[in-house]
């Protein structure tokens, strides 16, 4: 049975890397105990190759929020006015003439239910379009000012609505630094890197910190300034091997109590452009019994993907973890589709 599963994983990975969109890739699959393991690289990428985590970084930010909550240093019910000046917040969330900026809570940031717009994806002048052409640095205050120029999508706490936006996690990152009296990089080290002995995972802080290249279609681009400015919403670097250690710890209760995730069951479907993805307490959930799979899948994927092609998901139905990277900025659906195929084939 194990041999059959290995053959299926190998076949799916080979099919994926035959795509003209993928020039480099790496895949690592394990069960919780690690007695089942499969890994394969393509185009020079291996399990110890540096990779851009992009939005999987949000799982690190979530970990810090939960750890600080366990220490009693913050609450998900806290309003953002506890951590930010009202002048800074003013105009951030104005929906149909109503100012909602001061009513936002940490929970709404974490669950992507604030309704705030996303500067990375929205508009012709989006950060995603700009970063294809040039490398640039944008600080937190500039990100907030950029968000204020866009329109929120709904009122905070609107039932059954979620909207994926990086600013939610950028704000959580700022809150972590204030509550922990440290930089975000120091908080990551304290709550994640050191407890898990991750020596090749880091948040770039200066030009000396290595940032890998990423493909945009057939073009190789290098964007260290943008990665450094992405911080809590998407700035981390790691390897597939260390990402596997982390994702097992995240869902395994090694970094914070598993009860936290069990007590926060609320997940809402994201905007249509995000496909079949639900979002909740800092991570994605992708049910496999949906139209996209012709309702033939079982269970769900839990974890996160990144716009650079990275992915880290747990499939409880088969006790399997999928991590890796397809290193392609032009198609954010690639890692999602690959992981779904991997899960569907491991029967």
UniProtKB/TrEMBL annotation:
Pfam assignment, any one: Beta-lactamase
Beta-lactamase-related domain location: 11-330
Keyword Hydrolase: yes
InterPro entries, A to Z: Beta-lactam-related, Beta-lactam/transpept-like, Diverse_Enzym_Activities
UniProt cross-references to Gene3D superfamilies, sorted A to Z: DD-peptidase/beta-lactamase superfamily (3.40.710.10)
Top-rank taxon, per record: Bacteria
UniProt keyword list: Hydrolase
PANTHER family per the UniProt record, alphabetical: BETA-LACTAMASE-RELATED (PTHR43283), BETA-LACTAMASE-RELATED DOMAIN-CONTAINING PROTEIN (PTHR43283:SF11)
Protein name as it appears in the record: Beta-lactamase-related domain-containing protein
Organism field: Paenibacillus crassostreae
